[in-house]
Amino acid sequence: MTGLLRIAPAMLLAAALFTPGCGGTGLGGDGIDGIDGSGYASGAIEGFGSIVVAGIHFDVSNASITVDGESAAEDDLRLGMVVLVEGLLENEAGGGVARSVSSADEVEGPVESIDLSGASFVALGQTVFTTEETVFDGTTLGTLERDQVVEVSGFRRADRSVLATRVELVEDIDTFEVTGQIEELDESEETFALAGLRVDYSDALLVAETREGLRNGMLVEVVGGTPLVGDILVADEIVALDEDGPAGDGDDLAMSGVITSVLSPTRFVVNRVQTVRIDEDETILEGGGLEAVAVDAVVDIAGYVADGELVAEIISFPDN
Predict the structure, then answer these.
(1) The model's pTM
(2) pLDDT at residue number 196
(3) What is the H or E stretch that residue 5 is in?
(4) 13 CB contacts (<8 Å, ≥6 apart)?
(5) Could you tell me what percentage of the chain is helix, strand and coil, using 3-state DSSP and rounding each to the nearest 5?
(6) How far apart are the first and last CA of the chain?
(7) Same domain, yes or no, for 197 and 252?
(8) Domain hosting residue 125, numbered range
(9) Looking at residue 28, what is its pLDDT?
(10) What per-residue confidence (pLDDT) applies to 302?
(11) What is the sign of the dihedral through the CA atoms of 316, 11, 43 and 294?
(12) Do 144 and 225 have their domain in common?
């Protein structure tokens, strides 16, 4: 099992112990030592009441909620959505109080091909892998058809494919969206690639850091009109995304996601943006030792941020 939905994807901040629980990968339960203040929790929504992310029941009654950049309500949140929660991680009642909840998908676009034997499909040029824990809404992998439009939440793997936590069939949309890192930038032709998709940005509105110029490796969200022009997405808007992660020095931070690069035996990157540091004297490893640190391994991590890196207090390898 992947464990991504059981604890929650993206960057999840936990006031929870890495102790196995029903339906969980380990981050859930009694609270993790030292994580009891303000910080960030990110991952797939694994339950409701108000919402459960990384094993923490967050009260979202007074939270600012956004879905795909638009103001939303608690009823708009769905199981398997990857969210970032900022707030108090543990109050006197043992739960969390969210100040903000934001959700954004990885891909929203038409299905191009389906591989049932490989439990995968391609949408908007992005290869999407599913597991038995992927939440499907309005469809299943077996009933999915070409040209249907889906919205996918999940994590990018090292090869830029998506490990999906949620796949939702959508209708009546007038834009496609995709998130990824710019590759093969051609400034003369004003095009670049996002995994298997070619993007034409000649008439696009450049937002935030993109106004200073695009570059290979930049993490962006591209919004374009429908339909595709041949195999090219004509971008209406390109927004630069935070490449450093949401947490700052001193913040508590827990993450669930995929190792996308290994820098050394004790340093690696999760979900493309967060460098994680292992203290061989202090970090507790569950489900594996240093040999388990490998590209595309699924990990659950809790710790604190120092010098921009997540110093891991506990790392769990739920697939081992």
Answers:
(1) 0.85
(2) 85
(3) helix 4-7
(4) 35, 39, 40, 41, 42, 54, 56, 85, 89, 247, 252, 253, 254, 255, 302
(5) 5, 50, 45
(6) 9
(7) no
(8) 107-170
(9) 32
(10) 81
(11) negative
(12) no
- Cis bond upstream, residue 50 (ω within 30): yes
Same domain? For 283 and 311 the reply is yes
Which residues have CB under 8 Å from 178's CB, separation 6+? 106, 107, 108, 109, 124, 125, 126, 194, 197, 221, 222, 233
Residue 30, Ramachandran bin (φ over 0: left; ψ between -120 and 50: alpha; else beta): alpha
Q: Which two tokens stand for residue 305?
A: 């941020």
Domain boundary among 123, 138, 170: 170
Report which of 199, 205, 203 is spatially closest to residue 186, judged by C-alpha positions.
199
Is 159 found in the same domain as 122?
yes
Task: Write out pLDDT tens, residues 189-226.
Answer: 999 999 889 999 999 999 877 777 899 999 999 999 87
Q: Considering its fold, how many domains does the chain have in total?
A: 3
**Which tokens belong to 218?**
């930049």
Cα–Cα distance for residue pair 64/45, rounded to 1 Å? 16
- Rounded mean pLDDT for each run of 10 residues along the chain, 320 residues in total: 43 30 32 58 85 83 94 95 87 77 94 97 96 95 96 94 96 90 95 94 87 89 88 93 81 85 96 91 93 92 89 88
C-alpha distances in Å from residue 86, one per residue of 59, 102, 194: 11, 9, 29
Q: Are 128 and 122 in contact (CB under 8 A)?
A: yes
